[in-house]
Amino acid sequence: MRSIWIVLLVIVSAAVQNVTAQELNANVFVNMEPLQIDQRQEVQTMASDVRAYLNNQRFTGEDWEGPRIPIDVTIYINGRNGNTYSGRLAIVSHRPKNGDTVNTSPLLRVFDQEWNFLWTFSPTLSFQTMRYETFTSVLDFYVLLAIGMDMDTYEDLGGQFVYERAKQIAGLGNAAGIKTFSTNYQPGEITRMAMVTELTDPRMAGLRRLIYDYHVAIDEHSIDPVKGRAEVAAVLHDLADYKQNSISNRSVLLQMFFDAKAGEIAEIFKLQKDSPVWKDLQYLDAGNTQLYEKARTGS
């Protein structure tokens, strides 16, 4: 009997280890409304297929420590021509505050409006870094960004090797002639290649470190709101100094940061009418001036 319990313990332990080895806790939604009813059959299982793929694949190749990364993936299918689909992709990931998977901070928020891919009924989805796949390579690219950004918030430049994997996929996309993976883009233009280029650029390491500092402050805010608010304000002031002294062109990474964080920041400083943080935010994120002003005045 004792040997049976030992075997069961080993099995349960292995199962738990397998669960914690995965990086993602993904929810997947597929909007196929633009398709005619008779065109929807082959994509009926897309949401469940992609969910299983994302939640079972080890994208880092290592055992994952800590809570899985909450990530919402929404695929909008615009049209179909044979097995080729046109669509859009929304990715939203969150970071638990102090390990609390209920109380989270938004981390990555992107809306990719140009995606053409091949899809067949009941496909075999696999992670590739040596070959470009029209469907999985785009998903893998964004998932790697989400994982790398999460790792950056816990360790100094912790996501570097994950970003390098994403950059490898971007290079394959560029070689395949995929427009949004092209190395030709305007400064400040948010493209897939622009994102990963900044994330792997040594000149942007200072910005990544400030984003790390922001999340240390956010963790503190979840424990002590007054102290945490002061620490967040200090980081935002440092970001303003960094932008003024170290960024010559519009930064895609800085824009990505505020795309994810603007609502959270507005809530943290809500009704703090005399805080100097509003001046920094006006400089850092002018596009959300109305949001910040509403938070400042409460009107």
SSE diagram, text form:
Layout: H1 2-20, E1 24-31, H2 46-56, E2 69-81, E3 84-97, E4 100-118, H3 136-152, H4 160-175, H5 192-200, H6 205-223, H7 225-246, H8 252-268, H9 277-284, H10 289-297
Helix pairs in contact: 3-4, 4-5, 6-7, 7-9, 8-10
Q: What can you tell me about this protein's structure?
A:
- It is a single chain.
- With 299 residues, the protein is of the alpha+beta class.
- It folds into 2 domains: 23-200, no CATH class; 217-297, no CATH class.
- It contains 10 helices and 4 strands, in the order H-E-H-E-E-E-H-H-H-H-H-H-H-H.
- It has helices spanning 2-20, 46-56, 136-152, 160-175, 192-200, 205-223, 225-246, 252-268, 277-284, 289-297, and strands at residues 24-31, 69-81, 84-97, 100-118.
- The chain has a 4-stranded mixed β-sheet, sandwiched between helices.
- Helix 3 (136-152) runs antiparallel to helix 4, helix 4 (160-175) runs antiparallel to helix 5 and helix 7 (225-246) crosses helix 9 (277-284).
- Mean pLDDT is 91; it is low at 1-19.
